[in-house]
């Protein structure tokens, strides 16, 4: 088993929480894990990306080579397109469709949606809306993680255990809201990834 994942978005969206949950789940399944530090401006609003590598055998480098990523998981649609050169020919993009317009020359929304729609393997979802429907507007990152879950080759129950672990200190209501967002994302993606 080997999964090379690029996580992307803008600062403050919860990229590191996604990486932490996936990492915990991978380790609980006895997998090897390497993560590159977050690159970019991690303050709120700046672009961020991280490399996360999971494997059943030894991982030598923490950086994914261009053309080697199995998955791009992005909380921001333009950021998902920024890293396409890292995606393998049969790789998947899982992206939130809600833009964070943080620059004056942000691309036209229609053109951005058309480019995403043209990708051969893509899961697009409004993670923000799914989080709101789960009564947890701040859980868009967990909805996106749920959408990536069918493509991770990690048991969803292990990912849920990771969510419980990282949000436990915030109370059961926060844990349940994040789990609800995760499950909503998972169900949305299963419909889009059915082969």
Description:
There is one protein chain. By secondary structure, the protein is of the alpha/beta class. 41% of the residues lie in helices and 23% in strands. It is built from seven helices and seven strands. Strands 1, 2, 3, 4, 5, 6 and 7 form a seven-stranded mixed beta sheet that branches. Helix 1 (15-28) packs across helix 6 (156-167) and helix 4 packs across helix 5. The two termini are 20 Å apart.
Write down the overall mean pLDDT.
90
Could you name the ranges where pLDDT drops below 50 across 5 or more consecutive residues? none
How many β-strands, per DSSP? 7
So how many helices? 7
Label the structural class: alpha/beta
Strand content: 15-25%
Order of helices and strands: EHEEEEHEHEHHHH
What does the largest sheet look like? 7 strands, mixed
Round the Cα radius of gyration to an integer and report it: 15 Å
What gap, in angstroms, lies between the N and C termini? 20 Å
The helix content is: 40-55%
What shape does the CA trace take? globular
What's a quick, concise take on this entry?
This protein has helices at 15-28, 77-82, 109-117, 127-133, 140-148, 156-167, 172-193, and strands spanning 2-10, 32-35, 39-40, 47-55, 69-74, 87-96, 122-125. By secondary structure, the chain is an alpha/beta fold.
Q: Secondary-structure map with pairings?
A:
Elements: E1 2-10, H1 15-28, E2 32-35, E3 39-40, E4 47-55, E5 69-74, H2 77-82, E6 87-96, H3 109-117, E7 122-125, H4 127-133, H5 140-148, H6 156-167, H7 172-193
Parallel strand pairs: 1-5, 5-6, 6-7
Antiparallel strand pairs: 1-4, 2-4, 3-4
């Amino acid at each position: 088993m080997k999964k090379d994942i690029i996580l992307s978005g803008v600062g403050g969206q919860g990229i590191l929480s996604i990486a932490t949950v996936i990492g915990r789940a991978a380790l609980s399944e006895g997998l090897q894990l390497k993560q590159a530090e977050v690159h970019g401006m991690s303050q709120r609003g700046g672009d961020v990306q991280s490399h996360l590598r999971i494997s059943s055998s030894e991982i030598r480098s923490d950086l994914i080579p261009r053309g080697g990523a199995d998955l791009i998981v992005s909380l921001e649609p333009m950021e998902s397109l920024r890293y396409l050169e890292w995606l393998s020919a049969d790789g998947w993009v899982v992206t939130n469709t809600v833009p964070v317009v943080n620059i004056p020359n942000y691309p036209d929304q229609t053109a951005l949606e058309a480019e995403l729609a043209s990708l051969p393997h893509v899961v697009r979802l409004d993670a923000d809306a799914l989080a709101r429907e789960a009564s947890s507007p701040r859980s868009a990152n967990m909805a996106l993680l749920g959408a990536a879950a069918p493509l991770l080759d990690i048991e969803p129950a292990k990912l849920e255990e990771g969510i419980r672990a990282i949000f436990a200190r915030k109370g059961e209501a926060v844990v349940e809201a994040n789990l609800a967002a995760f499950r909503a994302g998972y169900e949305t993606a299963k419909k889009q990834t059915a082969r």
